[in-house]
């Protein structure tokens, strides 16, 4: 049976790879996006995760088109990197609102249908820097660490309903975001990664589809690092 899958921020990069992987498995997939057009071959719905009404409307549209969401992948995120002493309130607040509060809003909305269905998979896309830390990313690291608290609290609250909540924590992945890094910075990052390379979006998608599968039904509240050994979950 195809499942109803929603991937937030699924119009590019890791989110798009995840959405395509679920679609390839035969699931009914919708991605949320803020601007532009939805990706070719996938259903899309406009959604601003910082706005509760927008999240509610997006879920209502998905539910009408493909049924209650059985798999939620909370992937929408932004960065506004800045050194601690120079970081503005706006740079802090906007990242918190999108990455952490946005994940909360989507998880809260998805949980209603999952509790009724007595099943569900919540996958939060974290980051190696959530538990490893990163200079210039106090805001971003805080949001990604916060996702771990969400997953673990949700697990304890509604885990008895056949619902799992986990964090998949990518390391450095070859995307548009990492493509713009200076060559010397890239070399330094690669030198720190035991695998000796950046990850591919397919590496992340494979971990997400597994953790959302029946085979992973007894895994919940976990942080699954997909980072070539960089953070090892810490």
Write the layout of secondary structure elements.
Elements: E1 4-7, H1 13-24, E2 28-33, E3 43-46, H2 52-66, E4 71-74, H3 89-117, E5 120-125, H4 129-132, H5 138-158, E6 163-170, H6 176-179, H7 183-192, H8 201-211, E7 223-226
Helix pairs in contact: 1-8, 2-3, 3-5
| End-to-end C-alpha gap | 37 Å
Enumerate the spans where pLDDT stays under 50 for 5 or more consecutive residues: none
CATH fold label: Rossmann fold
Total DSSP E strands: 7
Order of helices and strands: EHEEHEHEHHEHHHE
Largest sheet: 7 strands, parallel
| Mean pLDDT rating | 96
Portion of residues in beta strands equals: 15-25%
**CATH superfamily grouping:** NAD(P)-binding Rossmann-like Domain
How would you explain this protein's 3D organization?
There is one protein chain. With 234 residues, this protein is α/β, with parallel strands linked by helices. The chain has one domain (4-223): Rossmann fold, CATH 3.40.50. Helix content is 45%, strand content 15%. It has eight helices and seven strands; from the N terminus they run βαββαβαβααβαααβ. It has helices spanning 13-24, 52-66, 89-117, 129-132, 138-158, 176-179, 183-192, 201-211, and strands at 4-7, 28-33, 43-46, 71-74, 120-125, 163-170, 223-226. α2 (52-66) runs parallel beside α3 (89-117) and α3 runs parallel beside α5 (138-158). The protein is globular. The N and C termini lie far apart (37 Å). 43% of the residues are buried.
Key terms:
single chain, 234 residues, alpha/beta, Rossmann fold, seven-stranded parallel β-sheet, 8 helices, 45% helix, globular
